[in-house]
Design goal:
9 helices; mainly alpha; 2 domains; 225 residues; single chain; Arc Repressor Mutant, subunit A
């Protein structure tokens, strides 16, 4: 008799856990479908089939395919973007912050599925500009804003030259982003590979110390007006 009363409780617990886990499972399956097929070609019927659920279950959590895509981007980016924005908030000399930023960007974003999502958006943006908006709001905007704040503080301290902090962000992060996309797009082809960790280190050194050698007397070259 004890076994009869215990079994329903256990089953109910499993059902509760399964129901709570469903949104995350749907998002994981949808991520694979979007990356394999593209946004337009991905059908919710296929997502449901691969997730082992009825198609109607998807609509309980996500009203549209666009809403599901937003959840996918948030899922891929949430932890990684949080790490980057927190790092940018550290009050440290820029000489320490820049290599930490570029290295962490390669470590977190570069080794996640974010570059694959970015490639998907570049492919679909003409037909679905809202996808790019989702990416900017979820990934690019918060990260650019955090680094821009750090650079503005460095300017206020007199640590770096005055200038458009937003443009300085692109000067620092742009080559790393290009390197990630290069690896994502061409990584499976027979082309020379790119060591992203080494790129982060070398680029940080170039940002902080320049590419030109010092003059014979040890003084750095004068910047162009």
């Amino acid at each position: 008799m004890t076994g009869k009363t215990d079994k329903p409780k256990k089953t109910a617990g499993v059902r509760r856990r399964r129901k709570e886990a469903r949104p995350g499972e749907i998002v994981e399956v949808a991520l694979d479908c979007f990356l394999e097929n593209g946004f337009e070609a991905t059908k919710l019927d296929e997502v449901a089939r691969r997730a082992g659920i009825a198609k109607g279950t998807i609509y309980i959590y996500f009203e549209t395919k666009e809403q599901l895509f937003r959840a996918v981007v948030q899922h891929v980016a949430s932890a990684n973007v949080q790490q980057m924005t927190e790092l940018s908030g550290f009050d440290m000399p820029l000489e320490d912050l820049v290599p930490m930023l570029t290295g962490r960007f390669v470590e977190t974003i570069g080794k996640s599925r974010a570059p694959a999502i970015a490639r998907l958006i570049l492919r679909e943006v003409d037909r679905f500009p809202d996808l790019a908006q989702v990416w900017f709001e979820t990934v690019a905007g918060p990260m650019l804003g955090a680094v821009e704040t750090a650079l503005s503080r460095a300017q206020a301290r007199g640590e770096i030259r005055e200038g458009d902090a937003r443009l300085q962000v692109f000067s620092i992060m742009g080559p790393i982003i290009v390197g990630l996309l290069f690896t994502e797009v061409l990584g499976k082809l027979d082309v020379p590979g790119l060591d992203l960790d080494r790129l982060a280190r070398q680029h940080s050194d170039a940002i902080l110390h320049g590419l030109l050698k010092n003059h014979a007397d040890g003084t750095p070259p004068e910047p162009n007006a």
